[in-house]
Amino acid sequence: MRRRQFLAAASIAALPRVALAAPNRDAELRAALDGLASLDTPTARLARLKGFDTASLSPSPRIDLETVRAGLAVDARLVARFPIGKLGRSPYAVSPNAGAWREKDANAPRIDAETDQLRADAARGVILPSPLLERTRKGVAEAAARASGPSADAFHRQAASLADLAPRAPAEPGVSRFPGGADYFALLLERHFGAAIAPAEAERQMLAAARSLTARADTVLKRLGYTKGSVGARIRAAFRDPHFLYSDDDTGRDRALADMNSCLARVPSRLPALFGPLPPECRNVSAVRMTRQEEAEGKQGYRTVPTPSTPGAYYPDLKRIRERPSWTLPAVVHHELLPGHMIQLPIEAAADPHPLRLEYAPAFAEGWAIYTEQLMAAEGAFAGDDHGLLGHLHWMLFRIGRGLVDTGVHIRQHSLAQTSEKLATLQGEAAYFAPMAQDIERICIEPAMRAAEALTWLGLARLGADARHKGLETLRKFHRETLANGRRRFAMLS
Fold this sequence. Notes:
By secondary structure, the chain is mostly helical. It has helices at 23-35, 42-48, 59-81, 108-123, 130-146, 149-165, 181-193, 199-223, 231-239, 250-265, 271-275, 292-297, 329-337, 341-351, 355-360, 364-378, 386-410, 416-427, 436-445, 449-469, 472-483, 490-493; strands spanning 7-9, 12-14, 285-287, 302-304, 312-315. It has 22 helices and five strands.
């Protein structure tokens, strides 16, 4: 990885944007990347970028070019072998969470194009699994009832096509159930992770992590007095200890926010040793309560990224606050605030990456935030606090469980019943924002993303551990170089 330079000024150190080495070529690349959407194929888009030399670009545009070229190369292989579904996202053109039927003002040509894609995919053996297909058909039929004119007619045609496909739909999910599906998963995994890796090797790494996390959770649970039953069962019992539950009222929710900010206040003193100088806006963040209306509507947690002139915040979902024991929140602080997203995202924003870089390095931000959760635990953030450590381990089991569901469903052809049982045994209690059935369904529809996030975390952890072994300065350098100029594909980090 290239070395980056960092400046300090007025006693406040900050990661600078590197001066442009070739502003004209940078602008030309930006314009070329903007224009790729007008080209029909990944091969044509790669050809448009052929004339650019990375040596003529400044650091952030250089990463844009390298990332987009690598991603387009994978897309070209996907299109050549698997012209199905939504390129780079899902083998299914229409599903419970995607398609024109979920949008307002969908027009008939768009709907009919999706229907044509459904039929073409079915001819290649790619059909939504039965439970998901039936839910989608009902949703499309309801969209037809709400629409009028040509759009209503197009939705009726789509619903009829889905009904026609139902007898041929597989009973269980998994891309390896259709021709060449294992290779399709491997290509998607390479696209999202940013490095080629055999799915079997990815699963081996995740299983090793799951075993280690389970053993650590078992030790902590025993220290806390939970000695009987599986790790998952004991975690469920710990979740129900009323001593750690907030009251379901304004007082309880305000207390949860106060606890999160108290935890956050202890983090900045740890940052210089681990990261060196950081932009000052990274520290200008807090946990903030949602509006009462947002809470009532059940809005999921969200964040606003700090800028040099505006503070950042994480707004946790506290509607079902009795399901969020106090000991689960410190790890959320480390993931969502510091040193997780609120360090990585502001530095990335300053680098102004092209949106296509975000498309072709989608697992980096989440992988970084998970890595920092683990980093804080390794650096003693939970020393003397076994409940906080249990909360951290539960979140880690959730993250690795997602990755194992991904390979289990799509490569091992595990049934939905098997998958649900394995996940419940592993993590016990569902993550607050991701009910198990809902999370499994999304993984069934969008293969390889959760595995890619887990692999990014595990890869960063390996690189970080190697750096830490050489001393704190080497670890700080690793972090600075990993974050400088924004995300990139994992192969570029290695």
